[in-house]
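The freezer alarm interrupted the setup, so I double-checked each line after restarting. Inputs confirmed:
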Amino acid sequence: MTAIEEVRACHAAVWHALGTVRDPELDEPLTDLGFVARCEVDGGRAAVELRLPTYFCAPNFAFLMVADAYDAVSAVPGVRSVEVRLVDHFAAEAINRGVAARAGFVASFAGEAVNELDELRATFVRKAVLAGTDRVCRALMKSGVDGDRLARMTLGEVPASQDRERLRARRRELGLPCGDGDPLLVDPETGEAVPPSDAARHLGFARLTRAGQEANSGVCRDMLRVRYPHIGEQEGAR
Amino acid sequence: MYEKDGEKYFVVDGHTHFWDASPENWVEGQEEYAKGWIECFHAYQGLGPADTHWPIDRFQKYSEELMMHDLFEAGHVDVAIFQPTNLRQWYKNGFNTTEVDAALAEKHPGKFLVNTYFDPREGDAGMKAFEERVKRYGCKGVKLYTAEWLGDSRGWSLKDPEAFRYLEKCEELGVKNIHVHKGPTIWPLDKDAFDMSDVDRASTSFQGLNFIVEHVGLPRIEDFCFMATQERNVYAGLAVVVGGLMHARPKFFAKVMGELMFWLGEDKLIFGADYAIWEPKWQVEGFVDWQMPADEELSDFAPLTVEQKKKILGLNAARLYDIDVPAELRLEAPKVVEPVGVPNP
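Predicted 3D structure, all chains:
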């Protein structure tokens, strides 16, 4: 490989790594959402800038994304130093400093934050499981499968699809049963199978959760576009 | 009163303000927050129809005449409920205080109900002042802003033992309607508005009080519905839902209305225009004209009946606040339809 090819390959690997980092609430990759403002790789040094839809986006979510991006890029072979900076955000300085120093959220916001963010993250992965359940089940219901039948189905009986694998991955992240022989409908807190008598209610919550998630995603995308009107051109720089 | 197609609607605006966010009222050294706050509100107004947008200077401080016109002359409102928000940390005389609201209400008998607030961080002195306000202004409700700053504190929780003391006092004084702001937030860190567990705990413990969750926890409607289905004394305050979504995000509005009707039902939804963020006129007219769209994605939801709209626009709030509704505006035989999510009483 020539030097230029190596730099290109490394850049592609860093971009791919950023694609594994999700907005914890929207459950979508930062790269798809347009949150990566800059991604440069030079001689093993990766420099990444992240941007968000508003100046006041919740700092706990922002902290998670910056810290996750730092971890993902650090793990790319060939990357020797990493700088991830959040830009245009009221808490950017505290977050950037905290992540670079590998300090936790509480230490980064002394006096203002009480809890670390693991539980926050888990809360939103549980929501992602519910929203993902609606995506999978809605398609099945459209083809005539009723709630009672859904409650007796296994993951493996669902026709293969991206939505099914995404749901499986979120369940794996929470330590919930996610094999082909495991039930399609599980309680996202306990992992217990949902009994047929509760299926309608469970599917209602799944529908509601997805509605909220997709609405928020829409709002964030609209606001980002208003804030950074030239967003399409910048993405060409990847 | 609003009349359309021969149907008459008694309108209660469950969420109104008379505020002063003009620069003369900004606390020295806190101008950034005072300005940022009102500009954030002003941006929300942009979600309404273009011909209802105000310039920022009018929005910062509007007149009594304008408010009376927008609500009662143009806006079809029969009775409006004031929901104060103090924000004294940023605004010298407060942003929208009980006292200012009450002065306006006294000048226009029968038009307004005055709610007040409590803040458990104000301790015993606050408790005494709270009781005095309730007695003086005949308050039947409070508006709680758990994210309000006070000194070094960035907010409080309804779970706090001190908050429970105040809720006991509410029961004692007959202040039975507890409006809690659980909606869009910008600050503060950990106390992000998605956490509604404090309302959950308080509503379970105080069965004699009604908890009206303002803005239904948007942008996290699911948290609200999850919680509300477990509690029979939790209501949905539709301020921001109608004003912020009906015009700007009609599809999401349909989903939210569908979900609220599905989980809470027609007796638990309370209209509020959130004046002066939005004027009631276009909201009342738009809501009466609105119907669940015929759309595959919305096929789980039933269309709204005229009777249901009458309840949501005014009769439900009238019931909670014991407002006398003229005979010709009542429902002939109020039906109770048990929603899916709420347990039987």
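Quick read of the result. The two ends of chain A are 20 Å apart (CA to CA).
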